[in-house]
Amino acid sequence: MKSFDFMNPDPSLLIQITQIQMPFGKYKGTLLCNLPVSYLEWFEQKGFPEGKLGIQLQTIYEIKLNGLEYLLDPLKKSRFNR
How confident is the model at residue 10 (pLDDT cuts 50, 70, 90)? Predict the structure, then answer.
């Protein structure tokens, strides 16, 4: 699986996880930023999907794991104020 490039982060990644819905599974249709930590922990144990979705899920997992969800608040608010 393609890993995250910490030397060249994609700034649009945070925007994406506040706008993209989970495409399958128990939480299909849920915004990635609203997925429960338990679901993300399951992916951490079983393996994140390949590609862009895997990177997005890994990112939101790390954000939630480290208590950084507040960083997404301005992005969530701007989404609804368009």
Answer: confident
What residues does 31 pair with on adjacent strands?
A: 21
> CA angle, 32 as apex, 53 and 80 as ends, to 5°?
125
Which amino acid is residue 31, in one-letter code?
L
Q: Could you tell me which residues are beta bridge partners of residue 21?
A: 31
Domain boundaries, the chain: 12-80
Looking only at Cα atoms, what is the longest distance across the chain? 37
- How many other C-beta atoms lie within 10 A of the C-beta of residue 51? 10
What lies within 8 Å, CB to CB, of 15 at 6+ separation is: 75
Are residues 9 and 70 in contact, defined by beta-carbon separation less than 8 angstroms?
no
